[in-house]
Amino acid sequence: MKFSQLIGPRTSEVVTADDPAPGDGQVLVDVLACGVCTSDIGPWLTHDPAGPPVRLGHEMVGRVVATGRDAARWQPGDLVTGLGGDGFATRAVLDANAVLPVPAGIEPAHAIGEPVATLEEALSRTPIAPGAHVAVVGLGFMGLGLVQLAKRHAPGLLVGVDPDPARRRRALALGADLVFAPDELPAEYRTGTSRATDARLDIVLEATGATGGLKTAGSLVRPFGTLCVVGYHHTGDAKMDMDLWYKAVTVVNGFCPDRTRLLAAMRQALDLVAERRFSYEPLITHRFGLDDVDEAFRMMEEAGPDFVKGVVLF
């Protein structure tokens, strides 16, 4: 097998090793696709070359080639996706209880289970009632995914917020009713100066992963509304806007550390993929080979107007 490993800041190498053997409760897969995730960009930017190499990639789709003694419900040839690591590799071992079948007729790059499961699990704790007024702040990969998932709940208004005009156009194409740059939001979306002009949102989904985006999202929530923090805030401290307290806003932590809940959400999300009610097709904009992992992270870091998400294909 071959795999990519991180050996220094922004520097990976591809090495060759023996194939791993699945344990009793594991499956060995030929990796067909692995998404490039924002949560891995920190190690890619800062890895100490004096330390041991680090392997990245956790958004996998693969074809089962061997199974452990206690994983016989999976058969060689099965296409699966799920939760795991070391995915930038031609082969990987996954827990047999942490994978699910890929929907029939969906290509591997469009069937990655982990990212959409994360979004669906967060929304499961942020109930969107039909007719609710909803905003998605941050229209990158996660935000555009949330636009699709929120739209199926029949909101009365779905607003997208992002400084990038290309991202705003994508949100409109995926079902947003209105889009704004943060500095162009109407005043009535931020302040309730009177009951007649208060247009603040029932539910706001934050998907920026940045303190500034979190502040914008908080300002849009109406009193007794809900703010769900889905963005990946992986460094530093985010200040609590005490106006949320005075508005009696419910704050939902969109991160889920529980594998059981994520797999349940993944099953629901893959059903949506199978039914063409959620699609990765408009979100996967760039494809890379195993030798191009650093280029994939570089393009993610730059986040140009034509980039939403990259996938490493095998």
Provide a descriptive summary of the structure in words.
- By secondary structure, the protein is α/β, with parallel strands linked by helices.
- The chain folds into 2 domains: 2-113 and 258-313, Quinone Oxidoreductase, Chain A, domain 1 (Alpha-Beta Complex), CATH 3.90.180; 126-253, NAD(P)-binding Rossmann-like Domain (Rossmann fold), CATH 3.40.50.
- The protein is 25% helix and 28% strand.
- It contains 8 helices and 15 strands.
- The protein has helices at 41-46, 113-124, 141-151, 165-173, 211-220, 242-246, 259-274, 293-302; strands at 2-8, 11-16, 26-35, 59-67, 79-83, 91-95, 99-101, 133-137, 157-161, 178-180, 201-206, 221-229, 250-253, 284-288, 309-313.
- Strands 3, 4, 5, 6, 7, 14 and 15 form a 7-stranded mixed β-sheet that branches. It has a 6-stranded parallel β-sheet with strand order 10-9-8-11-12-13, sandwiched between helices. A two-stranded antiparallel sheet has the order 1-2.
- β8 (133-137), α3 and β9 form a beta-alpha-beta unit.
- α2 (113-124) packs across α3 (141-151).
- It is globular, with a radius of gyration of 20 Å.
